[in-house]
Queue: 2 jobs
Job 1
Amino acid sequence: MDEIDAIQQAAREEAASRLFSGPVDFLLSAPQLKFLPEPAVPEIAFCGRSNVGKSSLLNALTGRKAIARASVTPGRTQELNFFDVGRPEEEGALPLFRLVDMPGYGFAKAPIKVVDKWKALVNSYLRGRQVLSRTLVLVDSRHGLKDVDRAMMKMLDEAAVGYRIVLTKTDKIKASDLAVVTEKTAAEAKKHVAAHPEIHLTSAEKGMGIAALRAAVLADAMGEGWTQ
Ligand SMILES: Nc1nc2c(ncn2[C@@H]2O[C@H](COP(=O)(O)OP(=O)(O)OP(=O)(O)O)[C@@H](O)[C@H]2O)c(=O)[nH]1
Ligand SMILES: [Mg+2]
């Protein structure tokens, strides 16, 4: 990154940080597709295996401790939860965009029927939602990509939904191991047409990578294009 890039990046992060520290409000929780909000503003969805840290990352990005419910028990988030970001002053005005916390996949402990219901809800939303701008695919940095993640990435490729791969819980892994998993993940991302080539390294716990991801999410929500 040269000096001008670094200055531009700092300015983007500053703008994103200001926006995210402004109004962020829980809108609604949709247990079925028919309860989705009107598709009125861009949406950014968080997906990944159960317990990977989706709700915690949403909290970290918005600087709120518990706007999204996180838990040590996998299967905590069971519905599509919508959060409004950037609510204007005027009554009834639409927010700038929405973040969508989703149930995790690959969770074997809930009854199979329940897991199938979550899967159908998440997949139909991801495949069919017109206002979905981008998706974040979260991957535990200690485990790297698993087959369920690859299946999700393939589905997003086919649905032409652009996504960013976000490695989570980087505070729990040695720097040398993190470098290896990042490189492997980047090599796989290159083979997926809808994957952004950059791999985001984050810790919701320690704040690593959060400012940069905030700026990326804002750019995605505003429809700034990227290609491989
Ligand atoms: N050390 C560390 N722990 C984390 C981090 N992010 C999440 N966790 C922990 O991981 C557990 C799961 O976090 P959640 O945010 O609930 O995960 P989720 O992906 O939303 O889980 P489901 O809703 O069940 O799919 C919680 O105990 C969090 O405190 C992180 O960056 N570092
Ligand atoms: Mg959750």
Note: The chain has six helices and seven strands.
Job 2
Amino acid sequence: MFEHFAIAKGDRPNESCYLYAPVFPIRTGGMKAVIKRTTGPATAAAAISRWLHALVAQDVQAVTPLSLSMENPAEIGDRVWVAYPWVEGRPYEGSTAEITAAGDLLGRIHAAQVPDEDMPRFRWPDHDAASVEEDVTGLQRVLGKYAPELLEVVLSRMSPWLASFMTETLPLVRDADLPRAVVSMDFKANNLVYAEDRPVLIDPDNAEYAPRLLDLALSALLFHYESAGSPPRLFTSSEWAVFLAAYRRHVELTDDEIALWPTALRYMLLEWGTWTIIDAAEWDDWDDPHKQAFLIDLATVDLARFPLE
Ligand SMILES: Nc1ncnc2c1ncn2[C@@H]1O[C@H](COP(=O)(O)OP(=O)(O)O)[C@@H](O)[C@H]1O
Ligand SMILES: [Mg+2]
């Protein structure tokens, strides 16, 4: 990968700047940049790149792959790598102004019309009894170890919800033919950098064409996760109201979306939330008091904290 991007041996970082994935800070053409993995195959990476350029052309702030003398993004072995400029700025610190600006950016992204044949499409999951069992035992194992006092209260809600996901949650959302948009499906504070008070989306690499309501639900639940400057909890109701109001300046939600919002939230809690709670144990994130407090809030959250109206 470094050879492809012509990074001299002495200029190659030994380590990722990120614990969870390879993200290499480098210099190229005199500029600070990062090289990281993006969604493959190359046609999908190219579609994400076109989407990012289209966003920027509409004044929606996001990174775009650097234009270099070599291919970028580039398929190298069985992975696709991309070089983005390093975005100088501040991390999120939880202020009302920052929350407003983030909701505004998400709304602008969802409102941008950029259809593309090669954009990855959201795929509905298909869980059998064994994978439900795996989620339930995963929650039991992780909560039993790190938050045993919550085991019963969390499991008594999550187990029946996980068991009925394929019959009572997924079909309602899937069969409603909800409005779709190209979304990052990872719109969280740690994927934004605030430059001159406007956030820039710096991690667009999970982009897909998906029901926009699911992307909004992901932000409602996970916006504060993994960012050191965030408070150690989900949005409060009033923070959510601020985020949502800014989002709605750009997106008019349909009646179907409004009716299905509680189901969409439950969908994301069961899919992304369960995964987040279990996967965090793989990285010892439950030992970090800041992350632990967030994870406990996530596991016990009353979804009525995030109303649409
Ligand atoms: N272009 C960039 N400018 C500034 N910081 C960046 C940039 N890309 C990544 N980072 C930093 O590295 C972290 C991990 O990068 P990210 O692209 O989010 O990786 P991943 O796709 O694995 O989540 C970010 O949270 C951010 O702190
Ligand atoms: Mg990221």
Note: The first strand starts at residue 23 and ends at 28.
